[in-house]
Amino acid sequence: MNLFGIIGLKDIVDILLVAGLMFYIYKLMKDTGTLNIFIGFLSFIIVWFLLAKVFDMQLIGAIMDKFTDAALFVIVVLFQDQIKRFFNEVGSHQRWRFLNKFLHKAENKDKQKWVMPVVYACMSMSKSKTGALIVIQQHMSLDDYARTGDVIDATINNRLLENIFFKNSPLHDGAVIIAGEKIEAAGCILPVSHDTGLPRYLGLRHRSALGISQATDAIAVVVSEETGNISYAYRGEMHLKLSSTELEHSLSALIQA
Fold this sequence. Notes:
Layout: H1 3-6, H2 9-31, H3 35-54, H4 58-69, H5 71-78, H6 80-91, H7 97-103, H8 105-111, H9 115-127, E1 132-136, H10 143-146, E2 150-155, H11 158-164, E3 175-179, E4 182-188, H12 204-215, E5 219-223, E6 230-234, E7 237-242, H13 244-256
Parallel strand pairs: 1-3
Antiparallel strand pairs: 1-5, 2-4, 3-4, 5-6, 6-7
Protein name: Diadenylate cyclase
Domain DAC: 80-244
GO biological process, one term: cAMP biosynthetic process
């Protein structure tokens, strides 16, 4: 039997697209800490298919059919943030790397100018154990989060960042959002991660940093108020206890990515 007589080029492309989509969904669920929910839902679909379609169990199949009728609604409710992130990333020019690197080399060089002010501010606040949370926008918009705070719209400056996070400042407890080479807003409210893998000694700032990194492609830099340690979160991963040099290299590398 000629296998290629049954499976054509269109079928191969179809299979590859589905495999790629499933891998991307798996990676997205893993990054956002919802992998167990996704696996549970997928397991339900497999069990339903086996019982109703393969073994032809009509009663249990009919009951499970009622659940699957509402599957789309359940998926939207459970994964609304992940669905939003998925479409944001698909529409992001980051996905077109071959054009992005060619067209935005100059833009990336300009972005490097404000890396050092952020690093200097974090160094100073680390020494004084001043808590800080700085979120750096990448390709996905952070306008929804910026609207929860106060508009700043100022040039990035290490002294301004230090004043915003000064302990007596009314904006001290919120997050600063940097976008478009400017400090866009301060005192912003971020989503909090409920990832149980985080060390218990990490507080709300670290969990908020991880939360925004799971919901978007932003870089979230944290200075601990208790220890003065500098950390950052990106793509759902927390990198703890960085030196100023490590922070500089990490920010420069992620901005160029």
